[in-house]
């Protein structure tokens, strides 16, 4: 299984590393993940970044899972 990374993926990662709530908002919309990320971002930038990267990875896995099935 090869890993492909598009320019959009790179921009999403950069957005997650600079301002994580916006990256989660763009990817998941205004929901629990977004509210949790705002809380984590206010508590510390690093927890918000980690959560945003996990949300991006989880979203990508769901997309791959649904396209294969």
From TrEMBL:
Transmembrane segments: 7-26, 38-56
Localization of this protein: Membrane
Record keywords: Membrane, Transmembrane, Transmembrane helix
Domain of life, per lineage: Eukaryota
Broad class of the protein's primary localization: membrane
Residues forming coiled coils: none
One Pfam family per UniProt: Pmp3
Record carries keyword ATP-binding: no
Record PANTHER family: HYDROPHOBIC PROTEIN RCI2 LOW TEMPERATURE AND SALT RESPONSIVE PROTEIN LTI6 -RELATED (PTHR21659), UPF0057 MEMBRANE PROTEIN ZK632.10-RELATED (PTHR21659:SF42)
Protein name per Swiss-Prot or TrEMBL: Uncharacterized protein
Species the sequence originates in: Rhizoclosmatium globosum
Upper taxonomic lineage: Eukaryota, Fungi, Fungi incertae sedis, Chytridiomycota, Chytridiomycota incertae sedis
């Amino acid at each position: 299984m090869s890993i492909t990374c598009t320019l959009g993926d790179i921009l999403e990662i950069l957005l997650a590393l600079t301002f994580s709530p916006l990256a989660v908002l763009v990817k998941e919309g205004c929901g629990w993940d977004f509210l949790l990320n705002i809380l984590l971002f206010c508590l510390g930038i690093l927890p918000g970044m980690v959560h945003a990267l996990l949300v991006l990875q989880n979203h990508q896995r769901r997309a791959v899972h649904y396209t294969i099935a």
